[in-house]
Structure formats: C-alpha cells, structure tokens
Amino acid sequence: MVKICCIGAGYVGGPTMAVIAFKCPDIEVVVVDISVSRITAWNSDQLPIYEPGLDEVVKQCRGRNLFFSTNVEKHVAEADIIFVSVNTPTKTRGLGAGKAADLTYWESAARMIANVSKSDKIVVEKSTVPVKTAEAIEKILTHNSKGINYQILSNPEFLAEGTAIQDLFKPDRVLIGGRETPEGRKAVQTLKDVYAHWVPEDCILTTNLWSAELSKLAANAFLAQRISSVNAISALCEATGANVSEVAYAVGKDSRIGPKFLNASVGFGGSCFQKDILNLVYICECNGLPEVANYWRQVIKINDYQKSRFVNRIVSSMFNTVAGKKIAVLGFAFKKDTGDTRETPAIDVCKGLLGDKANVSIYDPQVTEDQIQRDIAMNKFDWDHPVHLQPMSPTAVKQVSVTWDAYEATKGAHGVCILTEWDEFKELDYQRIYDNMQKPAFVFDGRNVVDPEKLRAMGFIVYSIGKPLDAWIKDMPAVA
C-alpha cells in the first residue's frame, strides 16, 4: 500500500489529501500538523475550514484511509510520498522584506524529513514557492541524507477557494515538475499514477522543476492582472459615464479574451495573488530584470489604488466625514462561499473607515467575530504564519462590532458597504434596510451585487463600482 503523508493541514493540504484519499481507496493518506487545535478540528464534526462539499468527502474517508495526526515524525518516517504544504509568508524584515518569500517553515520541514527518514522518499512541493526552491530543499536533504535517496517534485496547487472540491475532482490540469534524470522521471511517474486514479491522462502535464514552480506564479499573476485591468477601466468608466459591466461583457465576448475574471470590484484578495506577484517581482529583480519587475508590481498598485479609491468615495460622498457615523459592512471574506479572510479588501476598507473614526458594524455569514477582530488589528503579512506564532489575540477594536444578521448590521447606519458577493446579499429586503437607516441613506456596492436603479427608486444614494455615477456623488470630489 502506497503511503502518503502531507505536512500542513491548511486550505491546500486538507482538501487535496481528502480528495486523494476519496479517489484512491488503496492509498493511505495522513495529514500531519504541529497545531493540535487544527488537527482536533479536522477530526471533529466542525472542520477548521468552510468549503462546499468538503464535509462529505472527509466524513466518507476519515478513519478508513484518511487520518489527521499531530504525530508528525512517525508518519513522515513511514510515508513513501511526502507532500509539503506549509506557509510561505512574505518576509517582513531582512533581505527582500515586503517581497521575498520566507522559507523558514519550508526549511524546518525539510530538515525534519532528513532527520527522521529511514527509507527513500519522494518529496512534493505543494505550497506556492519561489522558483528554485526545489534546489535549496534538495541540498538540505542530500547533505543530511545518511545514504537515503530523495526525489523532489513540484506539484503546484491550482484550486480556487469556494470551488476547491470541484476543482480537485475535475482539474483543468495537474502539473508535475521533476528532475530530468531516470530517478526523477520515475518519481514523476509514481505521482502521476496517484492522480491517474481519476484525472484523464491528457490533463496531467509533466515539466522540469523550474517550469512547474514558475507556472504557478505566472498563472496567479495573469489572473490578478485581469482583475486589475478591469478595475483600472472601472475608474475611467466612472469618470466618463460608461458602464463597466457593459464594457467587460463586450470585451469578454472576444473568444481570445473570454469572460472570466472580468468583474470590476473593490479589489482582489486571497492568500496567493499579492504574495505570488510580490514573489515574482523579487525574482525578476534578483535576476536583473527591473522592467519586468515593475510591470508586475503595477498589478498590485492598481489593486491598492482601487481599495483607497473606494474608501475616498465613501468619505467624500458623506460630507467628507464619517467620524462617529455607523457604517455597515456586508461581507468580510475575500470572496463568496469561503470563510477565508486572508488579504481580503475588506480589511483595508475597514481600516480606512476606522482611520476616519467611523463606527463599523460587520456581518459575514461565514467569518467569526474573533477572526474579524484579529484581521483588523494584525499587521500586514502576520496572517501567513502558523496560528501559535501569530501575535496573541490583540485587543478588540472598539469601533468595530460584528453581528450575525445583515438587518442588525445596517440598523441606524448612515451607509452600507457591500464587500463580498454572497448570494444572500442579492435577496435582502432593501426597503426594510432603507426604512431603518439614517437619511440620506447610502449604499456603496463594492461587488456590483445590487441593482442601482431599484435602490435609487427606494431613496438610496448608490455608488456602484464602474457604473454611471449618482448625481449626488458626481458633485462630490472623489480624489482625496
């Protein structure tokens, strides 16, 4: 029986291993993590992450051929294939601060593998890592090898949160990079055989190590670039009276461009886009390619611009001050159908409003109050370290309240900001919301969820990103 061990029980390790166990009953899969609370949650009825369809998959396999354990060393020693999906945060100090990936957790995982292994291993990079990480890991393993052979493979994760289980069941492609040696090819084939249980042969791509590592960074950079492109156009739409939805639809009708990832919004979030692009920028700089680095850096600059532009719109529309005013925030996750708040635009929007002394009332169907308070109080990049190494629960920001109901959040508010495109926000009774708000009542739709005309008919002053501006907002200067 092939034994697989995955180090790291997060958003990548948990779902990926659950699906491998589900699709390969003949393989024993163990997910290990040093965080006791996280492993306890994986072994309970309340899984540590929310992902549609994940519960069913885990419940079918758990205890059969899928196990979650804190006994890291035992399971690593027994495994034939070791997946490593540990955090790779952006460095906050030292060489490459603010751009380079911090490989501390990766390196300690590699050293631990070298310490406990008694048989040959295939080590698979699952986390997003900078190009050439495999080389570093290889050196650590071979210098500590005690006669054991290691093969390093890169098998980057392309799943999207909110649809992760579907993405794993029917991936566009599975990418496996390995050394172009007889042993390297054999290792690639071993991993290929695992995926071949359910993924068609022509969807499993094999490349060299560097191509696989770089393909992941490039794919995320291209996706984020599309969002920043349409967001840049949304600013021009507002200035000229064009409608960004119509423009994006017309553009997306071109089969070479296609319609996906062309929704204008308050900005992109998630754990990967910003981190991967910063990483790409750093690699370009290190390889003497400043023009390429600046090109990709601009994608992040536009994203930051879009978030600050949104906050400026709110403040300027409301008589240039939100001090002491209640502002309702609907949605805190970075997108619908996930409870993930990593790098969500809501953090920057809320911080911007709090900086102007607003009272913020937040509702999100999947994010806990504790998580929201942590996110607002945490420094940039802190979220990407294991929980026990994050700052202790910071003191709650008292201008922030978290409710479990959209109507409660909006009661008595001067303005409502929609920051996540949860389906339920389309179905809300906006007349009821309007009746319980201070007047004039504002809606700032950061996801183009609502029909602005319907809301204007009720009496709302509406700002929708990239849509023709309300007469009221036109008269207010938007540039802070």
UniProtKB/TrEMBL annotation:
Enzyme class: oxidoreductase
GO BP terms, alphabetized: glycosaminoglycan biosynthetic process; UDP-glucuronate biosynthetic process
Residues in UDP-glucose/GDP-mannose dehydrogenase C-terminal domain copies: 328-452
Methyltransferase found in the keyword field: no
GO cellular component: nucleus
Pathway in which this enzyme or protein is active: Nucleotide-sugar biosynthesis; UDP-alpha-D-glucuronate biosynthesis; UDP-alpha-D-glucuronate from UDP-alpha-D-glucose: step 1/1
Binding site for NAD(+): 8-13, 33, 38, 86-90, 127-128, 161, 272-275, 342
InterPro entries to which the protein is assigned, alphabetical: 6-PGluconate_DH-like_C_sf, NAD(P)-bd_dom_sf, UDP-Glc/GDP-Man, UDP-Glc/GDP-Man_DH_C, UDP-Glc/GDP-Man_DH_C_sf, UDP-Glc/GDP-Man_DH_dimer, UDP-Glc/GDP-Man_DH_N, UDPglc_DH_euk
Catalytic activity: UDP-alpha-D-glucose + 2 NAD(+) + H2O = UDP-alpha-D-glucuronate + 2 NADH + 3 H(+)
GO molecular function: NAD binding; UDP-glucose 6-dehydrogenase activity
EC number of the protein: 1.1.1.22
Record key words, sorted: NAD, Oxidoreductase
Catalytic-site annotation from UniProt: C272
Lineage top rank: taxon: Eukaryota
Function of the molecule: Involved in the biosynthesis of UDP-glucuronic acid (UDP-GlcA), providing nucleotide sugars for cell-wall polymers.
Cited PANTHER family: UDP-GLUCOSE 6-DEHYDROGENASE 2 (PTHR11374:SF44), UDP-GLUCOSE DEHYDROGENASE/UDP-MANNAC DEHYDROGENASE (PTHR11374)
Protein's name in the database: UDP-glucose 6-dehydrogenase
